[in-house]
């Protein structure tokens, strides 16, 4: 263990024998700026479309509170709540640093201690609720804008088509983000207890075998490995 890696997590072990690891190429278990960049491009593509649609809704309806509420939710959820209920369980959080260095919420302040065990049922429910609001609230807001321009005198068909188009684009970009993450990221993510994680159990078991602090915490929570291996 080192000062940077007080829990001995192999993700932060610069001397770990990755070439001989059974999980090589199966996990995003080392910091990779290319993986982070791809994640941010996908995520913020949705955010930009969603915010743009909510701005149009604000102009059309004269009501700006949905946009303000969404911005506040975004900051609170992704900078505080998600860090506590999801990220504090992740091996990337185990680094001794006041700033999180990871493949998603990179650069976020770390306000809580590392918790090597799996997420609780309440944490999983809170995370899924947050993700649903993240994608669903902008769509509902824009659908309200679509309804508004259809019933309010002074708006024409072009306005309605524009509002409908941006609402559809927001929905499709949100659904696309979800499926891309599930297909290309969630099946290689080392935050194994996330409700969206789909890493095969043998791969999880091998990672836990190499990281005793995590293995002990998971076993204490009731998790059982098939075998530890050599």
UniProtKB/TrEMBL annotation:
The chain crosses the membrane at residues 35-61, 67-87, 125-148, 160-181. Keywords: Membrane, Transmembrane, Transmembrane helix. This is Uncharacterized protein.
